[in-house]
Design brief:
The protein has 205 residues and is mainly alpha-helical. The protein folds into two domains: 98 residues, no CATH class; 88 residues, no CATH class. It has a two-stranded antiparallel sheet with strand order 1-2. The protein is globular, with a radius of gyration of 18 Å. It starts with a helix and ends with a helix.
């Protein structure tokens, strides 16, 4: 029964990107067919090859939604609700993978290369030119789609923003792209209030 539920949940996540094309995914539980988007722009964005890891594919789709499409939602309240839903989907993905003993991290991970000093300095310069917090966050989201960061770089980004809640959002966007997560505890020092530290702590977990 548990395996059937897992297949249904995975299929439901993929079905949110419904279109005419289908991809057959072979899993230890058998083969399942999932629908995929036929729009050419989205194909380029999410790389619709048959996924090696269902978990990796789900997390990839969540990143695309979080970094590219949710920022386009006009109302701030609706964006926060959408972000909360994605956070819940990530937690459920982790729970399912743990239940079926699917490894969350593959062995022998090669760390991506973070932004170079020159590129990061240019990014920070542009970030400081933005007048509004929402514009700052949109710039961070845009850069985070392609770039990777060190924990110290994320700390520098956080220092460019004033409000704790915006700094927490920076962590939410950038932490998945941090290459030295063993140093991510430094991010806790960049906010003032205890509830902000708790929110960051939850993201780091």
């Amino acid at each position: 029964m548990g395996k059937l539920v897992a297949v249904i949940v995975v299929s439901a996540v993929f079905a949110t990107m419904c279109g005419a094309d289908k991809v057959e995914v072979t899993t230890p539980m058998g083969s399942i067919t999932v629908r995929v988007e036929t729009d050419e722009e989205l194909k380029e964005e999410v790389n619709l090859a048959t996924p090696i890891s269902v978990e990796a594919r789900i997390r990839q789709d969540i990143r695309v939604l979080r970094n590219k499409y949710i920022p386009k939602i006009p109302k701030k309240k609706d964006r926060r609700v959408a972000m909360a839903i994605l956070d819940e989907l990530e937690d459920l993905t982790t729970l399912l993978c743990s239940y079926f003993e699917i490894p969350i991290n593959p062995p022998a991970i090669v760390r991506p290369t973070p932004m170079s000093e020159a590129s990061f300095a240019s990014f920070i310069t542009q970030l400081k030119k933005e007048s509004f917090a929402e514009d700052e966050l949109n710039l961070v989201r845009t850069v985070a789609v392609q770039a990777y960061f060190t924990s110290d770089q994320v700390c520098q980004i956080m220092r460019c923003l004033t409000m704790d809640e915006d700094k927490v959002e920076v962590v939410r966007v950038c932490y998945p792209k941090v290459v030295d997560r063993e140093n991510a505890f430094k991010l806790l020092n960049e906010v003032t209030f205890s509830d902000s530290k708790e929110a960051i702590g939850a993201i780091l977990k």
